[in-house]
Design goal:
The protein has about 425 residues and is of the alpha/beta class. Helix content is about 40%, strand content about 15%. It has two domains: about 240 residues, Rossmann fold, CATH 3.40.50; about 170 residues, 3-Layer(aba) Sandwich (Rossmann fold), CATH 3.40.50.2000. The strands form two sheets. It has a seven-stranded parallel β-sheet, sandwiched between helices. The protein has a six-stranded parallel β-sheet with strand order 10-9-8-11-12-13, with helices on both faces. Strand 11, helix 10 and strand 12 form a beta-alpha-beta unit. Helix 1 packs across helix 14 and helix 10 crosses helix 13. It is globular, with a radius of gyration of 22 Å. It starts with 12 loop residues before the first strand and ends in a 6-residue tail after the last helix.
Length: about 425
Amino acid sequence: MDRKIAPRSRGLRIVLVSFACDPTRGSEPGIGWGWAEALARRGHTVEVLTHPESDNVRHIKHRIEELGEVGERIRPHIIAEPPAPRWTRLLPGPLSDMAAEVKRYDGWQRRALEYARDQGLDKADLVHHVSYGSLQGGSALRRLGPPLVFGPVGGGQVAPHSHRRYLGAAYRQEALRTWLWVRCLSRRPSCRATLRDAALLLATNRDTERLARALSRTATGLMLADGIQESVVRRPGEAPPTGPDRPPTVLWVGRLHPRKTPELAVRAIAHLRSEIPGVRLVILGDGPLRPSLEQLAVRLGVGESVEFRGLLPREQVFAACDEADAFLMTSLRDSSSTQTLEAWARGLPVVHLGHHGISDFSAPGGAVSVPLGDPADLPQRLACALSGVLEDQHIRRCMERAAPTWARKHTWAAKAETAEELYRAVLSERQPCSYQ
């Protein structure tokens, strides 16, 4: 059970803008809920503005009931998302999907602002916008009245042009995203106004922080967007569950999507087999690339060494971490990585590419960062880093001890405590009487 830390001041009334919010999911929905529960545990009243998606409303209600007294401080407000304008359907290919998403989200934010005013949420102490965690989306709730904390947000990171060979045909869409999302949308009035009006911007990687500073003089800070429940973090001295003898195992977790570049993982294992013949790669996740990845594994002669388990519940993901010896992160574009934080929490050494948010928040002593360098030999260099972790037991044991120590700094309890200090600083400037 997560620790409960009493707030060092009176409980605040916080409007949490959390478009994606679901206590049963990871990534953006899990982050949205993580803030709500963590702040409520600190004694604050959390007014959660979100939208219905899949079965999240039922999941939220069930989790609130489970939390008892803590759950009574979480007040969900479900606001439906409007349809996209018809003109977005006339745009070609992926441009149509991007435009539709932007317009639906803009419309939801306008609805959320009107709803919040009708419900008297303008009397809250503070607005904290956490989802979407994108700089370009801005926050219409900046106009509600209370001071705005915006983030942690990403949106400044781009897939490297030098490594486009690993993205294949999908690089065209990445280039379009860079032009539309990073270059254009970050300069639209709603984004600039949010940066101008926000009391504080939290960026989840240095790429985004640099972009924000180029657009505005708003105070910025770095904070990992992802969080982990403290109950998941392996305690000092706790050994992983023992099981039958197994070959050295590398774990890869994520959606099988071009920007996640799972191809690099398969190619790295093919190279690693020459040094560690029995090594195997376990891939958790599903997506459009699965058939081509299965064919690639066979073509490289490692079909029997690569296991595709599909999309699994989070509990089974944690179990897979306990059964692995190293975790491999190969994404060519990500604001940060929930999966690596979960791996570190379970004491799993991580090998990752040295760029974007994963590089900004890499666990000291618990990770090996592989520079992008020459794309031609990147799979070999990933294999070399994995070999160093798998074959040197002393190194691996040291990394296994360092990883949970780092993860513990990013539990939801720790993040809420840090956020409270930031709120205190914001309110002391804007509302000096808020804290007695």
